[in-house]
Amino acid sequence: MPLKSYFLLLSLIVSCQAISFAQAKPELKLEQIMQGEQFIGVSPDNFRWSADGTKLIFDWNPDSLPGKTPYALNPKTGTYHKLSYEEIRGTQLDNGPRNRKGNLQIQIVDGDLYLYDRLLNKRRAIIQTMEPVARAIFSRDESEIVFLQGNQVYSFRLSDGLLKQITNIQQGSKSKSPGKSQQGTFLENQQAQLFDVVEKRKSAREWYKMRHDSLEAPSHKTLYINNLESISLCPDTRFIYYRNMPEMPRNQNTLVADYLNPSGYTSNLQGREKVGAARTTYQSWIYDSMLDTAYAISTDSLIDIRRKPDFLQSYYKDTMPYSAVYDRSRPVIVLDPVFSTDGRAVVEVRSQDYKDRWICALDMISGKLRLIDHQHDEAWIGGPGIGGDPDYNGNVGWMPDERHIYYQSESSGYSNLYSSALDGSNKTLLTGGKFEVLEAYLSGDKKYFYISANFEGPGTVHFYKLPVAGGKLLKLTSMPGRNDVVISPDEKYLAIRRSYSNQPWELYLQENKEAAVPKQITYSTKAAFKAYPWRDPELVYFTADDGVKVPARLYRSKSSATKGPAVIFVHGAGYLQNVHNWWSHYYREYMFHNLLADKGYTVLDIDYRASSGYGRDWRTAIYRYMGGRDLQDQIDGAKYLVDSLNVDAQRMGIYGGSYGGFITLMAMSTSPGTFQAGAALRSVTDWAHYNEGYTAAILNTPLEDSIAFYRSSPINFAKDLQGELLMLHGVVDVNVQYQDVMRYAQRLIELGKDHWQLTGYPVEDHGFVEASSWIDEYRRILELFEGTIGKAK
Q1: What average pLDDT does the chain have?
Q2: Whole-prediction pTM value?
């Protein structure tokens, strides 16, 4: 070969290699991806509009500062800038009630009360004191602002600025002077007998007190409330709703030891009560300021108020006779009323056993309830716009005619929007279908509902407009993934926070009309993150052993020529969705799954039974048995990997945090051999030691339903543990506390178990913060998988 041709060929080879190297996919490293947003970039959040609609405010950190700071976007020019401290203080947000015309808006800024004129773009200070204003509304005739300050209700008259105190509430009870001892009574009587001046002055004091009491203004008579819990303002200033706790249970709280605080001494952090502790009882009252009287709201007439849950019958089936009702009404909480503009009230009543929700009209004059809708679930009440916590209102509001209400209910099997007359008649399903309404509220002109829903399928969320009488959903957003929307005050623009499965959250601006083109505002991702071709996980379905199609995210390995290893990831929270087309809440895990796939692992991420987004039956499938149907979905997912994706059944791992850690422990014990390795992060090991609100809804209480707690708790099956187990837990976790994993570890020690490890992270709570902790945690997880299932047998 001529020398010239040789050098030409060599040059071509070198050039081709250079091109190949330039296009080679970057190797992911734990030290990078576990930096989180420092590696990805910080997405904008907390987006909201100024009251005049001229600015979209959002929190962002494109400059890698210690924290986020507010930015402002001009929707007309599309330009934005970082707000100065003076601008932050001066920005008036669209965050308060408006009058019926919409020209006046009440605003509370840093505890001070203002009235904002939307037409003149001027703000008038009403109350500026050291005591913060908590809530404020317009009165029924809109001549006054009624507000709550320091647990007292006041009114401010707009015409002349008259400030009037409506209530004089004192915490505690009106108690008499403590009784005197026999000796004290003797001495007092002796003084009166011996000295005329003592008796004379005593009589004078009693006379002055009697005159003062008789002349005391009715509006300032003292209302004594023991353990006041909540006050609600009524547009009719005559009435006040309040709720108190007659007796506070003396339950023991858990303590969490903090070993690495600035003092150098170990301190105890206050934790929480454990499930089964005595529940707080509530009483709800109406105070009539005109008659100066308070009367209790009775719930004894509510349908099924004495009904026992069905599960109790299994414990008493051999006890005769068994009654399906209690001797007295179940404990409930009457939540804060939702008032119409003319002062009528609708309330939600929730049973404290989580199984009933009553929506009722409340007569403020008599305190009587009239049923509008009753929702009962033998598992527990929940779902989007409904909520499972009995302390919080679901989505309930007044229809434009203020003779009907709207509310969300799972009566159709999915959380949908309904309307009803106040007597419970004329119930109408406004959104029908096998999809979830995530948010719903009326437009400014009250002709439409704005609705956020997964109408096109559980993996996508769009924003819609719906005629107030129901009908066809009009889709307003178009980008794939998830679109979370905040509408401008004049409803001309949609501010959209949107993401896709491999694209983190960014802000977009769009006109409020169908088929409008959104314009991207922020660009947050960093160059190092964008250099890697992140996978768009496949959304697949596999068939569970009960015939149900179960959704999952699939990350295919780089090679499927030979039977390879696989990992199943179990998301946390139980009621959470992770199989979707938007940026995952578990974004570090998403990046870790890309790393595993690059190393030859197939990864499956399952929306098992109890996950959100799929309706009532999916949500409640774990009732009385966590680690039952939800775990079986993981086992069936493993079978799907082996049967359909060329995975080696002897090279299977599982991992997850919180609820995912719990499932990992159950899998390694109650389905031995399915998984050869598992990593359980911040895991619940015994549900009898978790909190009340989450646990009691699903498993009832340990005293009432011991079977549910026993079969759902991994600590009871530790003797059957097989495979290599790695446990990782934050030492200052005040949610799933370190005691959980320590109790489980002691159980393993006493059983003589080996092949397990436990690592504690001294400065971490339930959600890790420090990058060094994330790196160490996932280095150990990767080493576990590489050292066990990563190797061919």
Answers
A1: 92
A2: 0.91
